[in-house]
Design goal:
By secondary structure, this protein is an alpha+beta fold. Helices cover about 35% and strands about 40% of the residues. It has a single domain (about 5-125), classed as Nuclear Transport Factor 2, Chain: A, CATH 3.10.450.
């Protein structure tokens, strides 16, 4: 895997989510992708569903930096919302093999993200 391809796939993933277009995730994410967030490890479908639940508050993703080393990429971005949280800095570590993401780890400050969760719950009721 070339570093360029890793960075391209990582950017396409974050850009697709930021554009609120989950269709590309079907091909960007490997069928056996392992996603990790707060100790949970959902599979591909569960991960896409979880991302989909965030779309009602998501305005866009603003990528700050992408660092690439071989098959691994670290994407630092602002998850820009229409909630009192505003922008939440997120970091995703992804592994790209064969042009598809096989591993995702999302790191964020759960305290800063709490108003996003509260807004989603309020809108669901």
């Amino acid at each position: 895997m070339h570093t360029t391809e890793t960075g391209t796939v990582a950017r396409a993933y974050i850009d697709a989510v930021g554009a609120r277009d989950l269709a590309p995730l079907e091909t960007l994410l490997d069928d056996r992708v392992v996603a990790t967030l707060s100790g949970l490890q959902p599979g591909k479908e569960e991960w896409i569903e979880a991302i989909g639940r965030l779309l009602p508050v998501l305005i866009r993703n603003d990528i700050r930096e992408i660092f690439v080393a071989g098959e691994r990429a670290c994407i630092v971005y602002d998850f820009v919302t229409d909630t009192p949280a505003g922008s939440v800095v997120c970091v995703e570590l992804v592994t790209v093999q064969g042009g598809r993401i096989t591993d995702v780890e999302l790191v964020l400050d759960r305290v800063v993200f709490a108003p996003v969760q509260a807004a989603l719950q309020a809108r669901a009721s």
